[in-house]
Design goal:
The complex is a heterodimer. In chain A, 52% of the residues lie in helices and 16% in strands. Chain A is of the alpha+beta class. Chain A has two domains: 4-160, GAF domain (Beta-Lactamase); 165-227, Orthogonal Bundle (Arc Repressor Mutant, subunit A). In chain A, α1 packs parallel to α5 and α7 (200-213) packs across α8. The longest helix of chain A has 32 residues, at 165-196. Chain B is α+β, with helices and mostly antiparallel strands. The longest helix of chain B has 21 residues, at 151-171. The two termini of chain B are 26 Å apart. The chains are: A alpha+beta, B alpha+beta. The interface between A and B is large, with 56 and 56 residues.
Chain lengths: 232, 246
């Protein structure tokens, strides 16, 4: 399911991330759009607070006539999703196994029918979960799991990124330097291999040794060599 | 390269196991970046994509490619030194080639357009990747059909480039000893730079001139630049003042 509304909401959030954004505003947009596009009554973003098993509610969006019980968002499936970094699905609170029986009963008492918990991950680290609660069972309407996970991914990016231009500038400068340095070092290795008639592997070792003897970094020594190959 | 991918709208696969392995490793090294890239394919309805990071127009690294066609398009532009990706980086603006067989495309990119057309690619779209106000890479999309992006797809491509910029800056290991140049990525081919160094000594020229000679050898032979480079590094080929020799 890839409706224009879904596509545009993803574009809206990513556009916000290109601006000098306010993290809170972006996260509020994420939970609101997720609730709307997944036909939920309540969407909540929970984050791990550093202690095993404990979660904090960061932002939420609820239907006007719905009063959230936040204990549902920081326990049960949401806690499992945030801790494990896995999607946790409870399609129908009225038809759950033993594991979620108590949780399901609490959800039904509060007028909820089902939920999906989409993990917020960055690399191997789990930051929390984006949890969407529905009035009826989850599969009673068309709801895109891929969309929910995309919004959780964008929330993870928002949380992990500082919007200040100078932080991005530093990261970009570092990336460019790495590319340039690696290129210089590899070209210098090629020069040494050709000048000394040795293999690339031996030339790599020789470059490192020559740099060390001169008290230079590999990058600095390579720059000298590229400027004057016989200056080794 | 697949014999004739035109007519098939399926995303082409990598050619062989070693390329598939590179693709898998890149997806593991940059999981969020890879995921956003694949999402971008669906949103913009293109067949494939590649992400390249550049420190200059001639110093670049392919960080991720969805398939061998995307990888080939990137290598074409590195070999020829021209193409939408190069222009998107230097002009800092999205650059589109809506029909690789058109006269305008061949005028703009004489080295790239015809080779892309031969490879079965109909159109190519390049979006700059930005961070801190600086362009540091390009998101490159392609279609097998010569069909431009509509306004909504351009908007989605631009938004995808913004998200991918943030993801790749978050996922690249840019801490530590930058002077060691220890960035490792799945698609990197060290033999290209190593060969440039060797050729510079063989011909007694600058590294810039050496790169030009390597590019010319790849272009005239119709072989990928990294294959010629591997021949140089493994001493199967030596560049002499009279021309490339054995």
């Amino acid at each position: 399911m890839n409706t224009p509304a879904i596509q545009l909401s993803i574009a809206e959030v990513t556009h916000l991330l290109t601006t000098d954004f306010d993290s809170q505003r972006v996260l509020e947009t994420i939970v609101e759009r997720s609730r709307e596009n997944l036909s939920g009554v309540w969407c909540v973003l929970v984050v791990r607070n550093g202690e095993h098993g404990y979660l904090d509610v960061l932002v939420e969006s609820a239907n006007a006539d719905f009063a959230p019980d936040r204990t549902l968002a920081i326990s049960g499936p949401a806690a499992l999703s945030a801790e494990s970094g896995a999607v946790v699905m409870v399609d129908s609170f009225g038809d759950v196994g033993e594991r979620w029986r108590k949780f399901g009963r609490s959800g039904l008492e509060r007028g909820l029918g089902g939920c999906r918990c989409f993990p917020m991950r960055l690399g191997r680290k789990s930051l929390g979960s984006l949890v969407v609660f529905t009035h009826d069972s989850w599969d009673s309407a068309q709801r895109s799991n891929a969309y929910g996970q995309s919004m959780a991914d964008l929330a993870a990016l928002t949380l992990s990124t500082d919007s200040r231009q100078d932080r991005h500038s530093q990261a970009v400068a570092a990336v460019k330097k790495l590319i340039a340095v690696r290129g210089d070092v590899e070209r210098a290795v090629g020069m040494i291999a050709e000048l000394d008639g040795i293999s690339i592997e031996l030339a790599t070792l020789r470059l490192a040794e020559n740099a060390r003897q001169r008290g230079l970094s590999a990058a600095a020594y390579s720059s000298l060599l590229l400027a004057n190959p016989h200056n080794r | 390269m697949n014999a004739d991918p035109r007519g098939s709208q399926d995303t082409p696969e990598f050619r062989d196991e070693s390329e598939r392995e590179r693709g898998r490793r890149a997806a593991v090294e940059l999981p969020m970046t890879a995921k956003l890239c694949l999402q971008c394919l669906k949103l913009t309805e293109v067949q494939g994509a590649a992400i390249t990071v550049l420190s200059s127009a001639s110093s670049r690294e392919l960080m991720y490619a969805t398939d061998s066609v995307a990888q080939h398009l990137d290598e074409l532009q590195f070999t020829g030194g021209d193409g939408p990706c190069v222009d998107a980086f230097t002009t800092e603006r999205p650059t589109f080639c809506n029909d690789t067989s058109s006269d305008s495309a061949n005028d703009a990119w004489p080295g790239f357009a015809s080779e892309a057309d031969k490879a079965g690619v109909g159109s190519v779209f390049a979006f700059p990747l930005r961070g801190g106000g600086d362009v540091f890479g390009v998101l490159e999309l392609y279609r097998l059909d010569p069909l431009g992006l509509d306004d909504e797809q351009i908007e989605l491509g631009t938004a995808s480039a913004a998200a991918i910029s943030m993801a790749i800056l978050a996922e690249l290991p840019v801490t530590g000893d930058l002077d060691a140049g220890l960035l490792v990525n799945a698609f990197h081919r060290p033999e290209v730079n190593q060969a440039v160094g060797m050729i510079a000594i063989q011909l007694r020229v600058s590294v810039d001139e050496s790169l030009s000679r390597l590019r010319a050898a790849a272009y005239s032979s119709g072989r990928p630049i990294w294959e010629i480079a591997a021949d140089v590094v493994n001493r199967r080929v030596r560049f002499t003042l009279g021309g490339e020799g054995g």
